[in-house]
Structure formats: C-alpha cells, structure tokens
Amino acid sequence: MRKTLFPLFLVLIGMHLQAQNTLVKATLDTNEILIGDQVKLTLSAQHPIGVKVAFPIMQDSIGKIEIISVGKIDTIKEANQTTLTESQTIVITGFDSGYYVVPPFPILSLQNQKTDTLLTEPLAFGVHTLPVDTTQAIKEIKGPLDVPFTWRDAVPYVIGALLLGLLVFGIYYWVKKRKRKTAPEAPKAPPRPAHELALEQLQLLEEEKLWQQGEAKAYHIRLTDIVRTYLENRFNIAAMEQTTDEILTSCRGIALNKDLKEKLHGMLTLADLVKFAKVQPLPDENTRSMQDAYRLVQESRKSETTSNKETKQNTRV
C-alpha cells in the first residue's frame, strides 16, 4: 500500500509545483517560406491567477527579420480555473534568402512585488527564392519613359518663389522699419513650493476619476508625471527624462526613507506595466498608487523653517 501511495504523492507534488510556475514559449506556424510570404510567431505565457506578465515591446525589425504587424494580447482561463494563458501573435518575414534565427524573447513576471525575467527558446525558419526557368530567353529591361515638361508643371515652382520673396521682404521691412521699444519685464513672482503644486495636481487627478471610467493607462501616466515633476522640483533630479531604474538610483542620495522609496518603486513599476504591457490593475492598486503619491509628497516636502532659511541666505547673497 505504501509503495502505491508514494509515487502518487510525488505526482501530486509535481503538479502543485508546476501550477505555481510561469511557463513561457514561442512558436512558429511554419519553418519554410518563399520570399514575400509571412510567418506567424506566437508568444505565450501560462501562469497562475494573480501573477502579472509583461510581453516585450516590439520594434520594426529583429535583426534582419522584418516585423509586419503585432497583434493584441489574448487571455484564456484554463479548465482548472487557477491558471491563465496569455498569448500574442507577431507576423514576421524575411526579404533575403537564407535561414533566420528568432532570438529568445524576455517576458517579465511580477508576483509579490518581485520581478523575474523568463526567456523563450530560440527558433529558426528558412526563406527560399522563387524557382527560375532557365530554359526561357533573357529579356532586356525597358528603360525609363521621357515625360515632357509643361508650363503647368512649372506653376508650383513659380508660386513658391514668389511667396519666398514676399516672406524675405516682409522680414527685412519688419527688422529695418519697425523698431519697437521693448517693455520692461514685470518682476517675476516667487515660485510656488514643489509640494503645493504636486498636492494640487494630485487632487485634480483624483477628482477626474479616470480609472473608474476605464482610463487606467491615462490615470497612471498622469500620476507618475506628477510624481516625477515633484522629484525634479524638490530634489533637482531629472526624473522626467529617466527610466524607473534610473530614478530609483538617483533617489539613493536624497532624504527619502526606505518605506517611501519602496512605495515609489511599486508605483513606478505598476505604471510601467500598465503603459507598456497593457496590464489592467485592480481597483485597490489604483487607489494605493494615489495614496502612496500623497504620502511621498507630504512626508518629503520642505518645512517652512527650511524654506525661510534658504530665502534669507539667498537675500544676503
């Protein structure tokens, strides 16, 4: 009896471990095509419900392999009701004969605020030329046809030259004949504190209720732009021009505690998944990102005492 139950126990353990893993793969619908034909490349990721995956962002080509179109990501719930399969179809081709290698694709897996990178297997397909009938005679290539140039063809050039002449004359007349006195610049108002602008914009974004109306992507783009602008104005970090990893690296040298840095990391990572991987966040994730943004601004803003000291020092200088 024990000998019978032990293999069954090992099988059940193996099934449980497999259910907890994210499996990724890439497949081609054919391995041989003629020049001009197309190949369907399918990327898929099978993962437990609750795990989020991000497919790679495709460019116009993969080396010498041309990308014709990129399809939407489809999601299917498996029969066990605990596993999802997400897939995406990319149409590719090659315009030179030979064999092409499709490199491994990185697919991100996010679970419990931990990101793993999984790679698909490399694939190969061949491109062949059309067969040539060598028994037929070679025909000469026809030369280009001569088209006569008419006055109707010259009209656009004449009009363009007249307009250019009028523009040059107008600029010359404005510079030489009209010398206007420049009005003295009005004194500039002192810039508003960074936290006031950020809190004001966060409140406006919260009142618009974008993600409640199905605009989760626009919501997270606006939210992270507000936070990035605040970091630039408050800590002189070029956050608007940096990636998420670069921002987190820049934040190592500023006065942010560990808890605020972790919240900033989670907020920016979720926004990247929504913007680039078309992930649909849960309602509590949208709300938490807004709360983390408020807390980041409120707990890291300059105190009035510090601001007054800086103003006095600038006045003395």
Number of helices: 8
β-sheet strand percentage? 15-25%
* Percent of residues in helices: 40-55%
Report mean pLDDT, rounded to a whole number.
Answer: 82
Global geometry:
flat
Q: Tell me the structural class.
A: alpha+beta
Radius of gyration: 31 Å
Largest sheet: 6 strands, antiparallel
Distance between the termini: 90 Å
- Topology order in helix (H) and strand (E) letters: HEEEEEEEEEEEEHHHHHHH
pLDDT < 50 runs, ≥5 residues: 1-19, 304-317
Report the strand count: 12
Give a structural overview:
Among the domains are: 22-128, Sandwich (Immunoglobulin-like), CATH 2.60.40; 194-303, no CATH class. The protein has helices at 2-19, 151-177, 194-208, 216-235, 244-250, 258-277, 283-300, 304-316; strands spanning 23-28, 32-34, 39-48, 52-54, 61-62, 65-70, 74-77, 83-93, 98-102, 106-111, 114-119, 123-128. The termini are far apart. Strands 1, 3, 5, 6, 7 and 8 form a 6-stranded antiparallel β-sheet that branches. Residues 1-19 and 304-317 have low confidence and may be disordered. It has 317 residues and is α+β, with helices and mostly antiparallel strands. The radius of gyration is 31 Å and the shape is flat. Helices cover 44% and strands 21% of the residues.
Overview features:
8 helices, 21% strand, single chain, six-stranded antiparallel β-sheet, disordered N terminus, flat, three-stranded mixed β-sheet, alpha+beta, 317 residues, Immunoglobulin-like
